[in-house]
Hints:
Elements: H1 2-13, E1 17-21, E2 24-27, H2 28-44, E3 51-55, H3 60-71, E4 75-78, H4 87-94, E5 98-101, H5 106-112, E6 119-122, E7 152-158, E8 166-171, H6 172-186, E9 193-196, H7 203-216, E10 219-222, H8 228-238, E11 242-245, H9 247-254, E12 268-271, H10 278-288, E13 293-298, E14 302-306, E15 326-330, E16 333-337, E17 344-347, E18 350-353, E19 356-357, E20 360-369, E21 375-380
Parallel strand pairs: 1-10, 3-4, 3-5, 4-7, 5-6, 9-10, 9-11, 11-12, 12-13
Antiparallel strand pairs: 1-2, 7-8, 8-17, 13-14, 15-16, 16-20, 17-18, 19-20, 20-21
Helix pairs in contact: 1-3, 2-3, 6-7, 9-10
Keywords: Ligase
Protein name: AMP-binding protein
Family: Belongs to the ATP-dependent AMP-binding enzyme family.
Amino acid sequence: MLYETLVKNVREKGDCLALIYNHIKVTNYGLFQNVLYTSTFLSKHSVNRKRVALCMHNSLELIINLLALSKNNCLILLLNPANIKSLKDKIKVSEVDVTLVEDYLFRDFENMLYDNKIHVLTRSQLPKYSNLNDNFDLNVLNVNEEKRINNYELMQTSTGTTGRAKIAFKTSENLLLDAQNIVTLYSYKTNEIVYCPVPITHGYGLTMGLTACLFSGATLLIQRFFDYKSFSLISDAYKPSLFVGIPAVYKMINDHSDKHINTSSYRTFLCSGDPLNSEIGLEFYECTGKWLSQIYGMMEASLISANVCPTSSNFMSVGRPPDGTKIKIKDELIFIRSKTISDKYKTREGEKEINLINGYFCTNDRGYFDKNNYLFIKGRSGYENNSRKAL
């Protein structure tokens, strides 16, 4: 879905902006040419139809390598470099053949993988972004005709509440349907700018940032690490429409409330990744006049529900499910039904099918609906075998 969507964008709107990073602006044409070049480089290193771990911070090279791996029909494991302690377990469980990593992580990976035959390529060994000529022969455009590894495109990982690595397998259909849900709910538009300082290697950053922007033609603005000064400068310079943040980021913005915060260009501030503290939400509204739009999702299912129109009375709610997703609650347990749910996952014990009950997946989260059918999350159930309960 990732590479195929890029090809579609090049055909239909090649000169539109696809990416902004460190004030570098990249059109769909420019992005495609870099992806093509990197794909060829990876092929020369036999990185085709392999399981590949991609462990980089937000950058042009991260996006380019992710799309190049998609073109090469690889099954991609996304890893956040900030979570170094959990990486070895995740790599072992996922059984990758190759890892693409930040330079400073090379020694750590070499030590972690010394007893495994896993090829490590560092960022400095990979092609750098190049401002290539936008004029090229459109006949080079092609989509993948070969089938992917068991039709899976991505492996998303979490240590969850158990502290043990768990890998969910995502098909192209999972990713496409999730992107459609996001774009429909939040009305992503071509040429509007979506500012995403959240790691693209995190499921939330991947879906609300990269895949939704690819699918809609919106421009993705990424940042290696978030800081308030950059937020202020970027907001003034580029006038983004949507902001993809987590509670910790909004707290940082609140902490600078003594300064003028210009948020006039933003129509929505998205919030997910961690539970929102009501004080952060209230203070952010006092600073900006805008309520945070909470999103509820999880590794196995991506977006489950979203509070698209938050108000003073419901801003702590995660809203309602998108079309095609159904939610049931029994004894406070939240069950969901959606085509975005992965069909299998993997742990140290091996691969397992996702356990569904009458077509519903138990999230192990507790919650309730208010009188307006807005979903509120109360927390985790603390019991991992709720999936055996009957609906």
